Amino acid sequence: MAEKTVKAPMPGTFYRRPDPESDAYVEEGDSVSSGDTVGVIEVMKSFHEIKAEEDGTVAKILVEDEEAVSAGQDIVELE
Known about the structure:
mainly beta
C-alpha cells in the first residue's frame, strides 16, 4: 500500500498532461520531488497545477485523463 497520496484540492476535470500532444506530467515508477506538478485540474476554464507535497515514487495513478474529480479525492499514490 502506498505511503502517501496526492489529493485533488478542488472539484473539476483532471488532466494528466498540459495539452493533448504532450507527454503526461508523471507516469507510474517516476520519481517526484515536493513541488513537482503531477497534473492539472480545470474549473470553469481555469487551470490549477496539482503538485506533489512530498518526495516519492509514483506507485499508482488513480484518475484517468479528463476524469471528473471531487475535492479531497486521491489522484496519485506515492511510495
